[in-house]
Design a protein that fits this description.
By secondary structure, the chain is α/β, with parallel strands linked by helices. The protein has 2 domains: about 20-140; about 145-480, Rossmann fold, CATH 3.40.50.410. It has 10 helices and 13 strands. The chain has helices at about 5-70, 75-90, 165-180, 215-220, 280-285, 305-315, 325-335, 410-430, 445-455, 465-480; strands at about 95-105, 110-120, 130-140, 145-155, 190-195, 200, 230, 300, 320-325, 360-370, 375, 430-440, 460-465. Helix 7 (about 325-335) packs parallel to helix 8 (about 410-430). The relative contact order is 0.13.
Length: about 500
């Protein structure tokens, strides 16, 4: 059959054209893929670089501010580096810090920090760009700021040995003297004092923090003639580790039950043989009663120098129970937490504690202990009580945990764990934590590591092996805190 040349062309051309078109598209796609891939890769790597730079900037900002507070003691660069490492972390495995520069102006008013880092690329290595450099720079002008400070002090019986307690009092009073200078009050300096043993004393005037059906309210006669002195028990976990106010979780009054055997006279195997009651204020370690091992009352934030000095001078070592530094720290937090604004009673400002990010204000804690966390028991006759009565009750009551087995070593480990959790939560809020271990009883690696890790940075942890070392430590901390003070 005869076909025209045009018909043959129409029949064959589309197929060949399609084949040619497919090849052309493939070539064009391949050519376009390289710049497209490069553009996407560049965008991803640049985004990662921006995030890294942002983290660097934030970290050196906080480090430079911390260094400004440490200028008085000559270790500003060490503090700056430690704060930078603590804030920046090591979450980027491929990160390589290439430079860290720290400079202070001749007049000590300006702190300049510049940090450079190198990190691996993801996509740009296709173009032989295996790494990317980022840097950040900050300049901080030192200026005086206000201060909210909690002094959390161990007043357990072991502090009574030698001159430890007197040395602590003298050192703390010296810190107050450095902060206040010649003034009775400073407009923007507020200090609280939190003495701790195995329970904490909130004061009887804060009975509205208790459960409405608490024995101190509905059955005060249980305390006989002494009445409730103001100590409270630990709230159930996690409320013993946090800053939740009473409106979120109320408290239970502390009540040390009598261990008197009605058929016997008081003897050495009875850790609290009452009645009658022998006040610890008078009898010290031989006292007993429903408030046994209930220490001095917390002094909330105050700007009154005389109130603070009187409170420190009136402290005494308190025997029995043990050491629960975790509860001391959590109560120190509660004196600084804005969640407790208006909860603490008194004639002080009702807007305290201030918000965490209040411009020109810094929140700090000093916590001191002379021994490991411990639930004490001096009973030598092997009874089933396992420990003295504390804010957690007796150890064998199981209020620290739900496991069936218990012993004092496990109890100590759990108290340490709670302290560590409270430390981290406070640091997350930006509270500066200074930690001090004091004396031979606090010289073990366990307590030193616990308190070193609790400090905001390692440079804010101190160990005072002997009495003569403690005063210098308080002076150094006072120097840093004093630089935060607004001079009117």
């Amino acid at each position: 059959m005869w076909r025209s040349p045009l018909a043959l062309l129409k029949k064959r051309f589309p197929r060949s054209f399609i084949r040619d078109e497919r090849g052309a598209i493939a070539i064009m796609f391949a050519l376009m893929l390289v710049p497209t891939f490069g553009a996407v890769g560049l965008a991803v790597d640049l985004t990662n670089g921006y995030i890294l730079k942002s983290r660097l900037s934030k970290s050196i900002d906080s480090a430079a501010l911390a260094a400004g507070r440490a200028m008085a003691n000559g270790n500003a660069e060490t503090v700056a580096r430690q704060f930078f490492e603590a804030n920046f972390g090591q979450s980027i495995d491929s990160l390589d810090l290439t430079s860290f520069e720290f400079k202070v102006s001749d007049d000590d008013k300006l702190i300049t920090m510049e940090v450079s880092a190198k990190t691996d690329t993801f996509f740009m290595r296709v173009f032989n760009r295996d790494t990317m450099n980022v840097s950040a720079r900050t300049v901080v002008e030192r200026e005086a700021t206000g201060l909210e400070l909690a002094m959390v002090l161990d007043v357990t019986g072991s502090m009574a040995s030698g001159k430890k307690f007197k040395t602590m009092q003298t050192s703390a009073l010296s810190l107050i003297d450095t902060l206040f200078g010649d003034d009775e009050e400073l407009e923007n300096v507020w200090v609280s004092i939190v003495p701790f043993v195995a329970s904490l004393n909130i004061g009887t005037h804060n009975s509205d923090w208790l459960n409405p059906l608490d024995r101190a309210i509905v059955s005060v006669g249980d305390y006989l003639t002494e009445g409730w002195r103001g100590c409270v028990e630990a709230r159930p976990s996690p409320y013993d580790e946090d800053d939740a106010p009473p409106s979120v979780q109320d408290f239970t009054s502390y009540f040390y039950p009598s261990t008197r055997d009605t058929q016997e006279e008081p003897s050495s195997d009875k850790d609290n043989p009452w009645p009658p009651i022998r006040s610890e204020w008078t009898y010290g370690s031989t006292g007993y009663g429903p408030n046994h091992a209930c220490g001095p009352e917390i002094i909330p934030l105050t700007k009154s120098r005389s109130t603070l000095e009187t409170g420190l001078k009136n402290l005494v070592a308190w025997h029995r129970g043990g050491t629960t530094a975790n509860l001391g720290l959590s109560w120190g937090w509660r004196t600084l937490s804005p969640r407790w604004r208006g909860v603490w009673k008194g004639d002080e400002r009702k807007d305290l504690p201030l918000d965490y990010d209040t411009p020109g204000m810094v929140k700090s804690v000093i916590i001191l202990t002379d021994g490991e966390n411990n639930l004490h028991d001096q009973d030598s006759k092997g009874n089933t009580r396992v420990s003295d009565y504390t804010a957690y009750g007796r150890l064998n009551e199981g209020r620290l945990w739900d496991a069936g087995a218990y012993n004092r070593s496990q109890g100590r480990a759990l108290l340490d764990k709670k302290l560590a959790a409270t430390c981290e939560a406070m640091k997350d809020e930006g509270i500066n934590i200074y930690t001090i271990t004091y004396g031979s009883g606090a010289s073990s690696g366990t307590i030193k590591n616990l308190f070193r890790n609790c400090a905001s940075v390692p440079a804010m942890y101190y160990h005072a092996p002997a009495n003569q070392d403690l005063a210098g430590i308080f002076d150094q901390i006072a120097g840093e805190l004093a630089s935060l003070r607004i001079v009117e």
